Records
---
Amino acid sequence: MNTWYILGAGSLGTLWAARLARAGLPVKLLLRDSTSLSRYRSGGGLSLVENSQTSLYPIPAETAQGSTPIGRVLLACKAYDAEEAAASLAPRLSPGAEIILLQNGLGSQQAVAERLPKAHCIFASSTEGAFRDGPFRTVFAGQGHTWLGQPGQSAEPAWLNELSQAGIPHQWTANILGKLWRKLALNCAINPLTVLHGCQNGGLRDFPEEVATLCRELSELLLRAGQPEAASGLHEQVQGVIEHTAANYSSMYQDVQAGRRTEISFLLGYACHEGERLGLSLPQLKSLQQRLLAALQARGLPLT
Ligand code: NAP
């Protein structure tokens, strides 16, 4: 049985590692460096908080520089760290290794796949929610679902049953790019505006025209990018998300408030870049990107 190597003991990495380990599956964490490794070991393991109950999982860990060959790895870092993290693993990957990419947005997956042409890169799109509230301690904040797939590959791999064993809700799809594009479009229509207007998702009810124009441009982009399924009913879904999550602050809003780097290059940045590549005129999206970059710059946050 292949060991599940998990690179990145952050929110989603912990959530996956804890559930796989408690199902009795072999799991190993790959931490950034020896300082991080000794800090982890002194705490005795990963803590996961579920329904206010905390459990400690003493999952073995090492740094990426180890020497045991790796046949399967979950890349659970942020999109802006993915390419470098994947490159650091390259010398250890067995031929045909499986790499599951949990990153939000688009662009990082393609960069990893180019770096590791001999590996099987499986893209994932998750609606589960988790956040860190201490070192190696994660709170499971929202039930969700994870779509997995390899573009164009309809046959699902046999190891998916290990996710069922671990109680990780998931489904294989031949159209993983459509799922990732749709999530990216929802993000572009909501998250940047919540940063610019300084509001909860529900605050966007006050800007219906702005939201509608963005959805029109995003739908045009999705259609031209060959993603008709992702384009269909986008505006209605955006309106639904604004209503159903009216009291929530978007992840980008929270990142900006906390002074954390955003994944802008892989979300709105990717959308604008693809629009230009396809020769589209998307003035509202472009202006949104410029306003968001200015807001990040004003706060001294990275622009990529
Ligand atoms: P996170 O909590 O910031 O965790 C990322 C982890 O990766 C951190 O522990 C980071 O270590 C580690 N890391 C980065 N580069 C590394 C390297 N080279 N070697 C070893 N470890 C490395 O991020 P997250 O919230 O889990 O998000 C991961 C991805 O999932 C993102 O693309 C996000 O958008 C997506 N996502 C998240 C959620 C959610 O609810 N959290 C939901 C859906 C999708 P340091 O702390 O040392 O930097």
---
Amino acid sequence: MKILVPVKRVIDYNVKVRVKSDETGVDLANVKMSMNPFDEIAVEEAIRLKEAGAAEEIVAVSIGPEKAQDQIRQALAMGADRGLLIKTDDVIEPLGVAKLLRKVVEEENPELVILGKQAIDDDSNQTGQMLAALLDWPQGTFASKVEKSDGSLNVTREIDGGLQTIKINLPAVVTTDLRLNEPRYASLPNIMKAKKKPLDVKEVSDYGVDIAPRLEVVKVTEPPRREAGVKVESVEELVEKLKNEAGVI
Ligand code: AMP
């Protein structure tokens, strides 16, 4: 089985993002960028399936700027076999990404696509679902466990109040939840080896799909600042404030 793993270049999760003063977006200048954390989990899962003998090849694909090669190289250093960058400096919405990924699936014929459940920059949680719909493939979203049996996958999903296990036939789309696995760190020798692994670079125009934005960002603002708390003298005063000021009881 061949596995395709889309990896997105996003602002590192440790960075405190700054909103631009004109409220058009967040400031990306001199900000540390990394692989989307849910995509690291997706790469790890693909590698584990390969190590268990359930997959032969892992292809990591990213849609983004030239520098997104760094994130593909990270996937290669972790254990992916090949990389593909579809180069663009434009912001591409989940529908555009899903349309491009469909084309890649048609070219590469993987049996499984494992994506992150969401990108931590746009928090869309849409790409995997849209890709499954475009391909007319079954989907197992928010996976916390993936097991392959003949021609199908058992996917355990984190849902409200418990775990649901579904059986989906391959080919299929899976999206990863946080508890699926703990991604490995790439060792130095593997980072060196990854530099020699094949990485194809293509342009969005090579795929002939309409990726024009459908959404307009009206504005991006900072969350409201948390106000300082107050000390109360007695339980009576606390109850009074909860009733009359906070209005929560
Ligand atoms: P989203 O729907 O934007 O929250 O993203 C969900 C998942 O889709 C991510 O975790 C990635 O696996 C994949 N994805 C989204 N955008 C891209 C991109 N530009 N390049 C590669 N993969 C992407």
